[in-house]
Amino acid sequence: MRHIISILLENEAGALSRVSGLFSARAFNIESLTVAATEDPSLSRMTIVSSGSDSVIEQITKQLNKLIDVVKVVDLSEAPHIERELMLVKVRATGKDREEMKRIADIFRGRIVDVTESSYVIELTGDCSKLDAFLEVIEHSLVLETVRTGVCGIGRGDRILKV
Amino acid sequence: MQLTGAEIVVKCLQEEKVEYVFGYPGGSVLYIYDEFFKQDKFKHVLVRHEQAAVHAADAYSRSSNKVGVCMVTSGPGVTNAVTGIATAHMDSIPLVIISGQVPTHYIGQDAFQECDTVGITRPCVKHNFLVKDVKDLAITIKKAFYIAQSGRPGPVLVDIPKDITTHVCEFEYPKTITMRSYAPNVKCHSGQVRKALQLMLEAKRPMLYTGGGVILSDASSQLVKLAHSLGFPVTNTLMGLGGYPATDRQFVGMLGMHGTYEANMAMHHCDVLVAIGARFDDRVIGNPADFGSVPRKIIHIDIDPSSIAKRVDVDVPIVGHLPEVLGELQALFDEQKSKPDAKALAAWWKQIDAWRGKNSLKYKQGKEIIMPQYVIEKLYEVTGGDAFVTSDVGQHQMWAAQYYRFDKPRRWINSGGLGTMGVGLPYAMGVRFANPEATVACVTGEASIQMNIQELSTAKQFRLPIKIINLNNRYLGMVRQWQQMFHGDRHAESYVNALPDFVKLAEAYGHVGMLIERPADVEPALREAFTKHKNDLVFMDFITDQTANVYPMIAAGKGLSDMILAEDL
Fold this sequence. Notes:
A: 4 helices; 40% strand; B: 6-stranded parallel β-sheet; 17% strand
């Protein structure tokens, strides 16, 4: 099962390596990991997408809680939540492909943020499946480069992760 | 008060009432050592290798429940210490390790004796710090002591760059500390405790299985009282020995890979299992699938939530500080009327006594060759069962655990989790510093002892009258045993060739050496060592049977009831 784990942790040097080191040392899987400081600069917020059986996910949250720098851990996927990922795709855009690329980007509510004579950079946000779907739809040979941020997520409504 | 970083380190250690710092100086910690020189509130123990400094501090803590403190220099000082730190981490021992680091502006430049200390030690500490500003130094050391000994204890490392030790700032040692990211839960859930007691009272075949947590949290007296109230059988893990008196009628011996027949059978067949400060590791329950195939209810009490439901599913988890949880169980038991099912319990004990009848630790001592088990039994007799016993790792460790019956906690000091050969002698040193009048025996083998043999020199310098019981079978005994049983008896690299003359070696370091080759000499030699040479370090080289194996044995990956007994062979 895929889980999205949100972590509030002290914004200290080395905190990221404590988390990533824990995952590799205990053979837990990381699909994506994002981290940045919060509105309170002494805290970082990290989102990890992982997968495993219920007992593995339970161990992951327990082990994360055990890290001294970790303030709070929440499994976002336990309840309604929003997840978003940002992707930048550089595509070859020449001839008839130029128009087609623009059209598909529009359908996915992507934005073209860089244009040259032969290429576009398309910016796309959404959940993972939307970004995957976009890559499925466009002609593979036209994709020059992709970069994805990894997932970040937030609980809906009254679910708030704060100190 | 304006102080330098080096002065602050010393002040902090004094504020923490540190008695001994085990360490080894070097370039990065010279300012700190200079301040050591100028004070006499705590003593420094100069070891001969940094690994031994950490082991000695570790055993100082294990045998006293104080925080062990060590000091090493940057680079190789730290890397040498890593085995010691990992050893303490696996057994949850509270240590504060202070390491020197190259000056702040050299970090990352591949400077002389530089290594990424925080990175190298990160997976084997409870937490570590790199101090980047002298203003953070005092609070960081305060945090280190707090983290090391609270919750599930463990080693904490503080890495201090050399320039920080010369910088000056105002010093005030914080009295208390609160951290928003760390507040270990010690108060247990009363509802869970009630549920647990209910299950225990309904049990037909109950079992108490207790581990190192009982020792670490000083919960032994609460455990004994509760066990006596309930009348349940008790088994200890290797780390838990002494947590429950071995000579008590309810004690069924150690369990696990080399546990007694009755302990493993009772563990396998019980219907309600109460795990107390233990973690169901592979050397204890063998194959978790096999263990799980027998229906039983499990109550698991531990300070660390991540230990619960890690290897086996648990019915009643209780997170808390053991003395309090056991105290609450006791109070609940005392105030309510129902008692354990006496009839079922009597039948259960009858079954256990039948298993006991197998006498799974029996062995034959002939007239010619010394059996290793016999040496431990005689050691037990000669020391009146009251010695602190440290061990290295291997067959001798298992024999010491099986045949020396520990009645008190903190008397059995060994590396259970990491299984570090070479701990025995530095452990014995640490024990003796913490317990200056105590009788200390180090049970070891001719291979393990050579992994930290240089500490004979430290023991001489500090006049530590340790008795080294060297069970010398000229083999890496446990390796040879596995090769015999599982690798076609091919002894790949397990014969220990070119051994030194240990008597002469001991004498070269200024100690007493004894060679014991005949069974009849075992007891007289031990008596001589512990009486005539009471104040000397005595290296007793016992030439023992080369083919003796440790039984009972559960092969790796097998179930608890699948034991190989000596009589089967």
